[in-house]
Amino acid sequence: MSMGTFTVFDTATLWEADGTGLLVASNTFKMILDQSSDALNSSSVQLYSGINFEVPNGNGYTTGGVTLTGVTLTRSGGTTTFNWTGPSPAWTSSGAGIPAWRWIVVYASGTLNGHVNPLVGFCLGNVLNVDVPATASGATIAIVPSTGVIQITHNP
């Protein structure tokens, strides 16, 4: 199944341009799965605390998500490209399985310039804008990165 296009939250673009330090490779970035009850768009939320329907803890999923490793950032002119080269974020379901979800969300873990766990961006788990079905016990959800997962264009 193909994922949707990654969309950067408006505040992430603002915070990148104003020097908040959101997109710095030494930050800890995490990826979570969010259910369809959250109607995400680029201006809907700013912080991890604004995500109201993250997949519940348990059955192989851990609230707060998984840490992205091997994060790299490159800048060329007014474009910042965010990528990770570490292992694909993955969750192996257990028990009743991981429930259906719709969104993949990336955030910076920690406090940056007074912003606690600022969101970076999101995409659909299924490009067709439908829920990714529940994952049966023993099956694994893996998110495989492509080059330049996130691109932010800004005026320095």
Which descriptors would you attach to this protein?
156 residues, mainly beta, 5-stranded antiparallel beta sheet, 12 strands, globular, disordered C terminus
Question: Would you kindly provide a written description of the structure presented here, covering whatever features stand out?
Answer:
The chain is mostly beta strands. The chain has one helix and twelve strands. The strands form four sheets. It has a five-stranded antiparallel beta sheet. The protein has a three-stranded antiparallel beta sheet with strand order 4-5-12, with no helix packed on it. A two-stranded antiparallel ribbon has the order 6-11. It is globular, with a radius of gyration of 15 Å.
- Give the H and E element order: EHEEEEEEEEEEE
The counted number of beta strands is 12
Structural class: mainly beta
Mean pLDDT: 85
Strand order of the largest sheet: 1-10-7-2-3
How many domains, in number, for the residues? 1
**Rg value:** 15 Å
Main β-sheet, in a few words? 5 strands, antiparallel
Quick gist of this model?
The chain is mostly beta strands. It has one helix at residues 10-17; strands at 7-8, 28-34, 66-67, 71-76, 79-84, 90-92, 103-109, 111-112, 115-116, 119-124, 140-142, 150-153. It has one helix and twelve strands; from the N terminus they run E-H-E-E-E-E-E-E-E-E-E-E-E.
